[in-house]
Amino acid sequence: MNLREIDRLVAEKVMGWEPVYDDGDLVSFVTEFGTLFFSDDDECEWSPTIDIADAWKVVEKLRESKKFTLHDVLDKNDNKVYYAQFHWIEMRYVEYVGAHANTAPLAICLAALKAVGFEVGHVEDIEGEGA
């Protein structure tokens, strides 16, 4: 799955925005602020997987019902990666979901999707490597 596909999933599944299609192609989302145009070619419009400002909007949306933490950690090869985690109380238990990625925005998006029950498989990240 590429970053734009993840952006789309985050907009719909996490942010709760209504997708608008034209001839089967996603062209925009209806948000609480109006219409957000969306195309595969223009990551400037909405791209929480690469833009920390957009990623932080995702965090703020989920912080309405969940706690959030972000850490820089080392992977098994001692490379610096980011770990984003959401947690909340479910009945009497604390539920945790988190995700690692090479960038903070991508880690946030992957953890946010897990928090709403959607797990992303293999991700082609910014460098084209799997996250």
From TrEMBL:
Top-level lineage group: Bacteria
Family annotation (Pfam families): Phage_ABA_S
Domain named Phage ABA sandwich: residues: 8-113
Gene3D superfamilies: Bacillus phage protein-like (3.30.2120.10)
InterPro entries in the record: Bacillus_phage_prot-like, Phage_ABA_S
Name the UniProt record assigns to this protein: Phage ABA sandwich domain-containing protein
